[in-house]
Amino acid sequence: MTTDNSAPVSGSIMVVGGGISGLTTALEAAEVGYEVFLVEKEASLGGRVSQLKHYFPKLCPPTCGLEINYRRIKDNKHIKVLTMTEVQNVDGSPGDYTVTVKTAPRYVNENCTACGECAKVCETEISNEFNFGMDRRKAAYLPHNMAFPMRYVMDPSMSTDDRDKVKQACKYDAVDFDMEEKTIDLKVGAIVWNTGWKPYDATRIDNLGFGRYQNVVTNMMLERLASLNGPTQGKIVRPSDDKAPETIAFAQCAGSRDENHLPYCSYICCMASLKHATYLREQYPDAKIYIYYIDLRTPGLKYERFYAKLKEDKNIFFVKGKVAEVSEEDGTGNINLVAEDTISGDKIRQTVDLLVLATGMQPTAAVDKPAADLTFDADGFIVNDFSKGGMFAAGCANKPADVVTSNQNATGMALKAIQTLVRR
């Protein structure tokens, strides 16, 4: 490490991003005594994991991993959590950074008990982005049932009448529409970027029909449909008519391994579709499930066994071939797809009730590049420069990864951040 030993060293670490890897990074550093600023742009911690029904390797619900981490955060005086906050600028060098952060107003203070009385009287509705716009929620809302902090948010679009109603409904004087945006500077010695990933924008994949046909959904939308706190309370149904799907197709590598979109493999998509097949099988024992793939990648013995078990299901069909065309059947909402079976050479034409696109993960930093002296690869992932030190990327900000790999990586980057603060 090339840190100048004559420069002052801050004893604080900033973790940018409060998803599962950000939580791990923050806790690993704080539990050995370092002050940590945990910065999250959303109104709650939890990241993508909070949107899942189950996650590998144990197929746990999000509560399994998040609740214990939230408890550890609450019990640790070294962690300062800043939600609805984004990094505006980073100046300085390893050991001595000045980070400017901007916090948007929540319009709800710490008196909030999450009683929900504000939502009962609010009539203004907004798109529910937590469910990828598949339903709507009140403009007075709790981000989700595992929110941390467990505190409501008042959307700025709320009508004047509703603002008066929610203030009157709150028994705890928690609603404060006089809150303003705040910008502050924080001194830290190291920064770990855990900015995570976004589902690739499937509307950009012209030939697969997303955005044109209601019964073409993405893998993350299916995850929300299957979740008890999702738009259908866990029932997987077709968006067009709430019908129980009898035939479901998965189009793997939807936008991944494609020079026109994401040229790399997103690592998690194959296992996600295999997991989704189990969701469907639990609800619909006789449904027929077709998985169209280029290569099925199941990294590790446990994942390979999971795949092997699904291959025993006589109603799950694996087709080695990429979905090339998608259209909608007149009058039914069913989806017609065309693919080529690369083993037989035959062109396949099939009609299904529901098509699920296994869209890949795009690093958030590729879409919203941090204002800091970082190195990025061609795909927008942050490249770690260990010789320079000071700033590091963990989890899916650094590479496509599952939860286990992200957490292992986050632990390592917490150690790298600590090393920046320790003078030799």
TrEMBL record:
Its cofactor is FAD. Keywords: 4Fe-4S, FAD, Flavoprotein, Iron, Iron-sulfur, Metal-binding, Oxidoreductase. Residues 103-133 form the 4Fe-4S ferredoxin-type domain. PROSITE patterns: 4FE4S_FER_1, 4FE4S_FER_2. It holds the Pfam family NAD_binding_8. GO terms for molecular function: 4 iron, 4 sulfur cluster binding; metal ion binding; oxidoreductase activity. Belongs to the HdrA family. This is Quinone-interacting membrane-bound oxidoreductase complex, subunit QmoA. It comes from Desulfotignum phosphitoxidans DSM 13687.
